[in-house]
Specification:
The chain is an alpha+beta fold. 33% of the residues lie in helices and 43% in strands. The protein has a single domain (4-156), classed as Alpha-D-Glucose-1,6-Bisphosphate, Chain A, domain 4, CATH 3.30.530. It contains five helices and seven strands, in the order E-H-H-E-E-E-E-H-E-E-H-H. It has a seven-stranded antiparallel sheet. A hairpin with a 2-residue loop joins strand 6 and strand 7. The longest helix has 26 residues, at 131-156. It comes from Candidatus Methanofastidiosum methylothiophilum.
Length: 162
């Protein structure tokens, strides 16, 4: 094992809407963020640039393990109707450097995949006890809930994003 051990969390779900609807949901994430995960999401704001443009920066707040996390970052990849990648600023980037949202067409539907990348240092792993397992379990649960919620929102309200 090197200095860090890497973990990748991945969750996919089929949504009965075309890729454009999922893309529009994220294009309008400032309005959709709270409804996407009502228990944890507090706010999302593009702070520089336009939504989903490479180089645009963001600020968001969400609850993580009962604490409010204030997250800053930048959009590093944006392929309309296909992929969005966000990179977090330090200190979040120390543990979770980036997330990706992948949108793939499947007939008239879409497959939405969320991917979170984590890395933990050797010393943290050695002395953290169950913290790493807890972080990964709660993050995985959060991602699954987001997948189910975006599916429910878009399938029940096909006008969202218009």
């Amino acid at each position: 094992m090197g200095i860090y051990k890497e973990y990748i969390l991945k969750h996919s779900i089929e949504i009965k809407v075309p890729p454009e609807k999922i893309w529009d949901f994220f294009y309008n994430i400032e309005q959709n963020y709270r409804s996407w995960h009502t228990e944890d999401h507090i706010m999302f704001k593009w702070t520089k640039g336009n939504p989903l443009e490479v180089g645009s920066t963001f600020y968001s707040e969400q609850k993580m393990s009962g604490e409010v996390a204030k997250l800053k970052g930048v959009c590093t990849e944006s392929i309309p109707n296909e992929k969005i990648a966000l990179k977090f600023d330090f200190p979040t980037s120390f543990m979770c450097p980036k997330i990706e949202w992948i949108i793939e067409p499947k007939a008239k539907n879409s497959i939405f995949t969320a991917i979170s990348y984590y890395k933990f240092g050797k010393l943290f792993l050695k002395f953290s006890g169950d913290k790493v397992d807890y972080i990964l379990e709660t993050s995985n649960k959060h991602m699954q809930e987001e997948g189910e919620t975006i599916k429910n929102i878009l399938e029940r309200n096909p006008q969202i994003g218009d």
